[in-house]
Amino acid sequence: MPIAMVMHQAGGPEVLKAENIDIGAPGPGELHLKQTAVGVNFHDIYVRSGLYQTLPLPGVPGLEGAGEVLAVGEGVERFQVGDRVAYIAHGYGAYAEERLIKADNAVRLPEGLDDTLVAGMMVRGLTARVLMTDVFALKPSHTLLVQAAAGGVGQLLCQWAHHLGATVIGTVGSEAKAEQARAGGCDHVILYREQDVTAKVKEITGGKGVAVVYDSVGKDTFYGSLDCLAPRGHLVNFGQSSGPVEPLAMPRLAAASLTVTRPMLGHYIGDLARRDQVAAEFFAALQDGTLTPAAPAIYDLKDVGRAHQDMEARKTHGAVVLRVR
Length: 325
Known about the structure:
Number of strands: 15
CATH architecture of the largest domain: Alpha-Beta Complex
Radius of gyration: 20 Å
Number of domains: 2
Largest sheet: 7 strands, mixed
CATH class of the largest domain: Alpha Beta
Shape: globular
Strand content: 25-35%
Number of helices: 10
Structural class: alpha/beta
CATH topology of the largest domain: Quinone Oxidoreductase, Chain A, domain 1
Helix content: 25-40%
């Protein structure tokens, strides 16, 4: 029987236990998928820790993966046995060797795209595309700040924004990450442990501030991000790797007519046609060289707890993938 990494209670990485699971036959509208690779995200860590109580327990975390279709359920016409697919599953369950998923959650992988690369980037890649289009319509004339520019989504945002022609400022924690960020499209890099981010942003922009800040860090950077904005600027808080943001007093926004949004990817790709379009644009950007992500950090499925620990300790850079044998 295939195994899955199951959690019966929230807690540390040790709560993820390998257990045999019974897959069963795919129901109407479902696919039976033999997975080749599974992506790991900070969202998974929030679920495991109990910060997000969105997974009924016992349950299998994980939102994204890639693999081969083993069987299709009644009514499925978009896929057939043997197709290579990637997916984002809103109902979790990715930390497994095999699984059932709704066919509508899957997209067919183009020839030439590696399963391991894509599996760890579906959430990141679609998130980056949505953040630059639906959440804030980024233009070549804009100057933007990306907090954690060497992170998974941060890298993609910097590369995509640079390709678009915008001026990209990125924050990183070390000189090694600074080199990575410059190579990835950052026009200006700020070492946040050594430099005052707000002061440097104002210096770079001639005192104006930036049109938009993309901030996945949360508690440690949120209010500093607000201070980096130009009048009528927009803060996109799309993660909280440092912890939840403390309550916001609305007059703080009124001081410069600022706006803040806390987007969740599922709300922007709930429509099947829109999801397929966003995924196609992401795949095309990988294939044409617009995006050149670093190779993912790879762990075995049973080592997912160590993957979580390394992510929380900021030992990983970019995508993290579980290899399924």
